[in-house]
Inverse folding.
């Protein structure tokens, strides 16, 4: 009788343990996995450790960088210009009054450069040849973070999980998409780069860049740059967050850096 009781107890435990495991397996199968995207470091070049990086893009084989200025770091400035890959300095093309504006991301479209600011809801437009200021526009979100273009629209982030599309002619909102990772909102989207039909975004305060399907907002891949973050901090201990993605379409290479990093890394992404 005792053996029978023990057997019954054992069967009960096995059955009760088995059911949650089966349920867990089923739930795991439902949630899609997001692949890690591999990369290799091709080279690197200097970056100004005073540059509080907010945006990067490549145009005519030149790398443009925008930066912000914060009171806590008096050496920082709100500007954009061409990055000198020999010494890391930015050849300034336009600078904002740091007492009024905190410079954020930049993008080029139709021979115009568009620059965001952080919380003042003011964006600036420049001629991409002369860098003369052409006008201003109202940022339609509470904050301006990163900006890129798909060749038709401007696409901007505001620190949430939302990406907002703007008509470059009217600067009015065309649509917005909500970015999700495995069905959950992926917020803190920062600097952006549009590459071959996908949007790549820095995730602020993390070493991650996510690859987003613009058709549905789903994150379809992740690039873990923990190694580069570690290297930047080892070389310059005041290096801050990873932020800055540019893509050279002719060379099929990515450029990535961070706020006050000592280098820009050139990556071949698989």
């Amino acid at each position: 009788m005792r053996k029978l009781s023990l057997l019954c107890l054992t069967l009960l435990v096995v059955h009760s343990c088995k059911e949650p495991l089966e349920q867990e397996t089923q739930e795991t199968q439902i949630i899609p996995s997001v692949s890690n995207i591999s990369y290799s470091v091709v080279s690197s070049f200097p970056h100004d450790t005073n540059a509080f990086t907010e945006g990067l893009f490549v145009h005519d084989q030149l790398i443009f960088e925008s930066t912000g200025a914060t009171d806590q770091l008096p050496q920082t400035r709100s500007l954009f210009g061409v990055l000198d890959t020999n010494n890391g300095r930015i050849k300034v093309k336009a600078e904002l009054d740091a007492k009024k504006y905190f410079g954020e991301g930049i993008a080029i479209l139709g021979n115009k450069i568009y620059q965001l600011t952080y919380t003042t809801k003011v964006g600036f437009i420049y001629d991409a040849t002369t860098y003369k200021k052409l006008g201003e526009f109202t940022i339609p979100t509470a904050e301006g973070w990163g900006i890129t273009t798909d060749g038709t629209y401007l696409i901007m982030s505001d620190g949430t999980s939302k990406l907002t599309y703007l008509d470059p002619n009217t600067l009015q909102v065309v649509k917005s998409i909500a970015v999700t990772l495995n069905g959950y909102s992926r917020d803190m989207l920062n600097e952006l780069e549009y590459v071959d039909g996908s949007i790549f975004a820095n995730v602020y305060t993390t070493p991650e860049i996510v690859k987003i399907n613009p058709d549905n907002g789903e994150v379809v891949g992740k690039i873990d740059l923990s190694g580069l973050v570690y290297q930047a901090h080892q070389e310059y201990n005041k290096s801050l967050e990873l932020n800055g993605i540019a893509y050279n379409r002719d060379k099929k290479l990515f450029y990535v850096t961070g706020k006050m990093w000592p280098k820009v890394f050139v990556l071949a992404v698989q």
